[in-house]
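Researcher: Let's do a round of design. I'm pasting the structure tokens now; please hold your answer until I've finished.
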């Protein structure tokens, strides 16, 4: 089970967690997975005009809960963060083109059987993280929220 205290699965994401608001990460919580050594989070918008757009890349998370407003830097007290498709480190929320209708935002949590060793944190993207996770994923959870401008 993967939840947020600020929106339910398939509900609208509150403005605070988007580019129209403060643009901070929402609080997230998931069930501990037996034998999981670490967790990774990837937030994706498959409805973006240019194809799937990545909003957050985080890995080597040791806890099963992230608070609101995880700091936007490579190393945090919760884990390591990579580059999103805005070219920034950390979370940047939903920001679909105006008048584009609702986009879906998938908050994906991956339970891993190892801690990942990636050479350069600054260059870690969703794609390179997915490659590094291959063979180590023991469970996946998804929370989907919607947003339109």
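Researcher: That's everything. Go ahead.
Model: Designed sequence:
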């Amino acid at each position: 089970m993967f939840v947020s205290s600020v929106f339910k699965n398939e509900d609208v994401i509150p403005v605070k967690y988007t580019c129209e608001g403060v643009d901070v990460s929402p609080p997230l919580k998931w069930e501990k997975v037996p034998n999981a050594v670490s967790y990774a989070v990837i937030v994706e918008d498959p409805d973006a005009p240019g194809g799937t757009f990545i909003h957050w890349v985080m890995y080597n998370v040791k806890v099963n809960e992230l608070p609101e407003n995880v700091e936007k830097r490579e190393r945090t007290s919760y884990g390591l963060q990579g580059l999103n498709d805005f070219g920034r480190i950390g979370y940047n929320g939903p920001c679909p083109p105006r008048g584009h209708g609702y986009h879906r935002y998938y908050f994906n949590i991956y339970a891993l059987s190892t801690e990942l060793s990636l050479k350069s944190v600054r260059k870690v993207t969703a794609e390179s993280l997915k490659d590094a996770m291959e063979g180590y994923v023991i469970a996946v959870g998804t929370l989907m929220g919607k947003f339109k401008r």
